[in-house]
Amino acid sequence: MDPFKIQPDKPTRTFLLWFLGICTMINAGMNVLSFSMFAFFPNVIHHSIEVMKDMPRFSGEEYQEMFDIFLSIPAKKCILLILAEAASFAGALIMLWKLNSIGFHLYTIGQILEFCTLNFIIGGKLAMDFSAVLMVVLVIVMYATQLKYMKDKFPAEGNNEEQIQDNE
Fold first, then answer.
1. Which of 74, 65, 64, 66 is nearest to 42 (CA)?
2. Which residues pair with 100 in a beta bridge?
3. Per-residue pLDDT of the chain in tens (168 residues, 90 and over written 9)
4. Fewest Cβ atoms nearer than 10 Å: which of 11, 33, 48, 121?
5. Mapping DSSP to helix (H, G, I), strand (E, B) and coil, where does residue 100 land?
6. What is the CA 108 to chain-centroid distance, rounded?
7. Counting Cβ atoms within 10 Å, is residue 125 exposed (0-12), middle (13-18) or buried (19+)?
């Protein structure tokens, strides 16, 4: 038996899966915090903007416009973004921790929900441009390449050892 050959029956965590999973969880966690601040504590954000206006680095109109855009999003729409990020986080966690392919589907659903929320529900300046959509698709494809190293939630009928033992 070759020790360097990947055995399909034994799930493994590759470096790419580690890297994608950790980056996804950090990004989703930071986004949930940000969206939560805009959804549940807009007064804190308003106060922060007033304090930051006096700082030379943040005195530009670009920062004010960015905060105005985020503060104009209703809380319900921010909650949709929070749910999308939570699904992406949970999907990455399931793929990384349990090596289960159901995490890929949960991650993909989260990305689709985020895409639809940003482009169709919120729209405007928060709509994703082509490069952002391409990046999301590439990350999904990179995760999809890792599916062969994971176990399925529902194994094929002929491969389930417990079913075979029960039938004997």
1. 74
2. 151
3. 555 655 555 667 899 999 999 999 999 999 999 999 989 998 888 888 777 777 777 767 777 788 788 888 899 999 999 999 999 999 999 999 999 999 999 999 999 999 999 999 998 888 999 999 999 999 999 999 999 988 775 555 444 444 444 444
4. 33
5. strand
6. 8
7. exposed
Q: How far apart, in whole angstroms, are the C-alpha atoms of residue 158 and residue 79? A: 43
- Predicted TM-score (pTM) of this structure: 0.78
Alpha helices in 94-129 (DSSP H): 102-116
The residue type of 166 is: D
Q: How many angstroms separate the Cα of 14 from the Cα of each of 21, 22, 25, 44, 62?
A: 11, 12, 17, 42, 41
Which tokens is 148 given? 């062969």
For Cα atoms 45, 51, 57, give the angle at the middle one, nearest 5 degrees. Answer: 105
Collect all residues with Cβ–Cβ distance below 8 Å to 58 and sequence separation of at least 6: 52
Instruction: Let me know the angle formed at the C-alpha of 127 by 18 and 125, rounded to the nearest 5 degrees.
Output: 125
